[in-house]
Every structure is written in structure tokens, then in C-alpha cells.
Amino acid sequence: MTSQTNNYSTAGYKLFQVGQFEFRLHAARSIILSGLGLVLVCLGVFSLGLGSQDIAPGDIFSLLTGGTTLSPSDHAILVELRLPRLVLAIICGAMLGLSGAAMQSLTRNGLADPGLLGVREGCILVILFLTLTIPAMPMALRPILGTIGGLAVAAATVSIARSTSNLRFVLIGIGISWLLSAVIAMVLVSLDSSDAQPLLLWITGSLSSATWNVVPVAFSLLMFNGLLLLLASRSSEILSLGAQSAIGLGVNLRRTSIIQLVAATMLSATCVSTIGGVGFIGLIAPHMTKLVIGNNSHASVLTGSAVFGGLLLLGADTIGRVSFLPLQLPAGIILAAIGVPVLLMLLWKRRDEL
Amino acid sequence: MTLVLVAMLIIAALLYMMSGPRLITPMTILSASGALDPHNFDHRIIETIRLPRLLAAMTTGACLGLSGLLLQGLLRNPLGEPHILGLNAGATLAVILATALPLGIPLDGMARPVIAACGGGIVFLATIVFASAGKTGMTLLKVTFCGIAFSALASALSSAILILDDDTLDKVRLWMVGDLSAARIDTVGASLGLLGLALGAAFYVSTCLNALALGDDVATSLGVPVRKVRFIGIVAAALFSGIAVAIAGPIGFVGLIVPNLVRRFAPDYRASVVLSALCGAVLLVLADLAARLIMLPHEIPTGLATAFIGAPVFIVLVARAIR
Question: Residue A141 and residue A273: Cα distance in Å, rounded?
């Protein structure tokens, strides 16, 4: 490993070489991000212990070392109920954060969010139809097919709005998401109420039915799309200078945009097919990241958004799970209560330009 | 124009009375309106099911149309609408709160629309205060976003209350999706006084809206008391939407479509008060007819039928307003 400083604005960066690959890490930002990761782990352990059956953190750690001091029922609660829920909350939160960050960078619009633009509703609609018509379809296929629905909606929005970066795009996306919500509600109404009840909970976005068997699919798609976005992050950074300058600097505009759109939609679709329609994280997480570590490098905004997304969803789910025991509130409701003030703050900050 | 709308309303009402799972001929309807035979099955359907629902649809539609007209005129904004601006969500939250909390408020009669109007008014005020901040003033984007934000907050609170409190959920479940099948005909009767009050206010405000459309400064120089008119107009708009929500629950988009449609034919605000009321009634009667028939034997909530028409209208309006 060597460290170097050159005449580019790489102050604070350290260059690492692994074989023929080299990458730079910003020391301060890496420390902050690892610190946030640590907070996430602590929150996770804290959240594992809470619930209708309280379990001491010491007992949870004993699970790791092997010499478990847990009673069999506590062990089952921990491993079969709380742990998959925790893991899914972190994975899905990270997916939503990444998806929002990619969407905002793609549209160069800080108010873009897969949920607001109708992309999420497109995914929900396709997956809803599939669950109803082909119940035996394998779990792994759902995110892929949901992605197609989301992309179709994105294509419709872009073709009506004709451009992605202006306000028209956001407003038209809102209109389309209203229309699709009406279609979804129509499908739900036509079902018997016993069939509709679990689907309704799924659409609201709830982690209460989390199990281990969706974790591998969700995790691999998170890793795949996360890596894609990180690889495209350099180009998208240059794109923020404007399309003309970026093309002049040798960025493949079309490829970068398609990668970002597909990855963001697929992340959103995966999240929809595992836990349902959770809103606001994609909108808030990137802004929280920019507040904490600044907006200097797109790669660190992406990483930070993933971490903040995990924190937000885990936090919201934990609050919803334990604050009104024995009743549970879906994470979506808590997130709305956190997300609306943040959205209003964003509008307030940009009140002179919007 | 007025005559055309009245004719349309009569035809729509007739169709509404005729169709359903059981077809009733116009002759039967005529004979029922002459002398009601309590032993005739068709007459019973007309009296107990279809007529109350028709009256509720007409009242709600007229209220929503008028609320939209006032909001669009006062805010000079084609997207002014009780659903978008958070009035519906606020009114729903207020009624749910009043049902859930042990305040001892009777939720029948006049109290229901008044509580709904207060809730809607508070959320609406929050929306416009936030949306009008900044140098650019109240732009389409800011109004819509603030409306969505405050609506989301109010809806989240409503859902939280309903998840935690089963009794309240039982009482408001059908009503809160915005469906005329759960319409409360007793509320229609009890709101007549408020309706008259709001209507009077609407007529007064409409005489000033033409001047207000030219801008606050011009209106002031023309002798219009801008602040007073705006205050009265907002109260009236909140009352209209409160009455509509109290009767039928939150139904969106009627208030968006009606004024935009009416003002293409009648740019004068004074004439458009009556026209908006009529047009809103026709639209909601037709929408509810579609909601009842489109998926027989199922019924879809009325609010869904209006969303199917309203969301595309919203998209077209945005595409036209922002180039």
C-alpha cells in the first residue's frame, strides 16, 4: 500500500492497491461511515433484546460465542423471529437508501424518490398481479419481474415529462403514482377480505412476516446492484456537472443513466417484493448523508445512504415493534412521522428556488 | 350552460335510480315519487337505499366542486383541491380523533362536519403557510409537495390510531376510504344550515374573485378587501370540504376537475359558483354510478372511481402549466 498526494483535489484521500486494482479512501469520511456502521450494530443488538419477551444483551452475545445461556424458547424467538427481521430491516433499508441516492443523482433532483415517482407502485402492481395469478412462482423471480414494472412506469413518466431534471417530472410522477395506487386499490377491492388483508399489510410495508428464506435473494441483489452503482459513481459524479461537459469528458451518458435507473428500480422492486411498500427512506437517507459527510463524492454518498437507510428502517421498525406492546405499528407509519418533517425541512431550505 | 347541467343532473339522477343489481324502470320511479307503496319491493329499494345515496352523492359532489373552485380562485392555482392541499386528510384525522378520544363529543348532526372542517382547515393553513414561504411564492411544486407532506403526516397519525384502537376502526372503517355506500344521510340533513352559510360566503367571495385573479395589488386598488375575502373564502372552502368528508369520507379529485372544467366555459367566477355546484353533483353521481356498476357484484369505493378520472387530469394540468 502506498499513499500519495497529487495535484488533483485528492486531499485527505489514501490510495490503496490490491493487485492491479487501486482505489482511494477518504480517511475522515471512512471513519465517520464506520462509526455509523458501529451505531447500526449497537442498535441491532439493542433491538434484538426488546420485545414482548425481553432478552439481556449478554445472553445475545453468548449466542455468538457458542456457549449459549438462552432458554430454548428465547433461542427460538431470537433466531427464528427477531434475527431475520433485523437482518431484513437492515438489508431493505440499505436498498431503499441506495435506490433513493441513485434516483436523485440520475434525475439531478433532490426531491426524487422511487416512492414519489410511481416506480414503487409499478413494482407493487406487477408483483401483486403475479402473486394473484401464479402463486407458485419462485421468490427469486419476483424482484426481476417487479423491476420490469417499475422500469415501464419510469419510461412512461420520462416520456410524458420529456426531461428528468425539472419540476414537471416530479409532479407528473406524483400524478402517475396516484393513478397506479387507484389501480392497486381496485385490485384489492375485488378480492375477498380474507385474501386482501395480508396483501394490504404488505403494501403498507411491514416487516412482521420476515423469515430467513427471503434473506439470500435480497442480500445478493443488494450486493449486485450496490456494486453496479459504486462502479458507475465516478461517471455520475462527472454527470453532475451537466450532460454536455460530461460527454466532453468522455462519460458514456447513456450507459451511466441506464445503469443507475435499472439498479435503482431493481433495488426498489426487491424491497417491495420482500417487505412491501415502505416510503420516505429513499428521500431522506441521501440528504442525511450529505448533511453528515458532505456531498463531495458520489461513492461515499451511496455508501452513507445505504448505512443511513439501514439505520432508519431498523430504528422505525424497532420503535413500531416495541412502543405499543403488545400491538405493533408498521414501520411505514413511523417513517412517515420521521420523513414528513425532513421533507418539509428540504422544501424550506430550497424555498427560494422551487 | 346552467340548463344543460340541470338536464344532465336529472338524467344522471334517473340513471342512478334505475340501475343497480336490480333494474328499476322509470315508470316505477315515477309512481314511487307520486305515492310510495310500502309493500312494493322496488319502492322500498328506492326509498331506503338509492334515494338517500343519490342525495348524499349530489350534496357531496356540489360541496367538493365549490371547495375546489374557492381554493383555485383564492390561491390562483389550478391545482387547488381539497385532496391535494391536505384538507381531506386533516378532516379525516379530526373525525377519527374525535371518535377515539373520550371527549364526550356527540359525533352526530352538526358536530361532525364542524370538526371535520376544523381539522381540514388546520392542515390546509399549515400547507399554505409552508408553501408560500420563499421568494418564489406559492408555486405548483411547493403547494403540491407541502400538501402531500401534511397529508402523509395526518394519514400516518390516522392509521396509527386505527391500528391501536379497534373500536374506532370498526366505527370508521368504511367511511374513511371515501365511499358513498357508507354515506350518512343524517349528516346531510344536519349540514343543511352550515351548507347555507358556506354557500352565502361563496357567493360573497365569488364577487371579488374576478378582481383577485388579477393579483392582490390590482384587487386592492379596485376596492376589494383582500385579506377579509381570503379569510372568508378559506373558511367557506374548509366548511365545504368538511361537510363532504363528514358525509362520505375523503373523496379526491372532484374539486380538481370541476373548476378547471367549468372555468373553460364560464370564466366569470360569479357564474361559476352555481355551475361548479351543479357540475360537481353530476360528476359525483356519475362516478358513484360507475363505482357501483363497473365490477358487479362487487362495488368499488367512490373515491377510487374519482381517482381514475382525476389522476390523469392532474397529469394533463401539470404538463400544461409547467413547460
Answer: 10
Q: For the purposes of burial, counting CB atoms within 10 Å of the CB of B68, is it exposed (0-12), middle (13-18) or buried (19 or more)? A: buried
Residue B27: the pLDDT is 80
The residue range of the domain holding B268 is: 52-321
Chain B residues near residue A168 by CB distance under 8 angstroms: 318-319, 322-323
For residue B85, the domain's CATH number is: 1.10.3470.10
Mutate which of B84, B138, B141 to disrupt the A interface (most A C-beta within 10 Å)? B141
Whether B73 contacts B269, CB under 8 Å: yes
Q: Which CATH number is A136's domain given?
A: 1.10.3470.10
pLDDT number for residue A7: 39
Chain-centroid distance, C-alpha A242: 26
Domain with A199 in it: 13-330
Q: Which residues in chain B touch residue A170, judged by CB atoms under 8 angstroms apart?
A: 141
Determine, yes or no, domain membership for A223.
yes
Nearest beta carbon to residue A182 from set B146, B148, B307: B307
Contact A182 B311 (CB under 8 A): yes
pLDDT for position A21? 66
Q: For chain A, how many structural domains are there in total?
A: 1
Q: Which residues contact A33 (CB under 8 A, 6 or more apart)?
A: A293, A300, A303, A304, A307
Instruction: Please name the amino acid found at residue B172.
Output: V
Asked, for residue B28, whether it belongs to a domain, the answer is no
The residues of chain A scoring below 70 in pLDDT are 1-12, 20-24, 66-69, 164-166
Is B2 a domain residue? no
Pick out chain B residues at pLDDT < 70: 107, 323
Domain annotation covers residue A65: yes
What is the predicted pLDDT for the residue at B154?
Answer: 92
Domain count, chain B: 1
CB-count burial class (<10 Å; 0-12, 13-18, 19+) for B279: buried
pTM: 0.84
pLDDT at site A227: 92
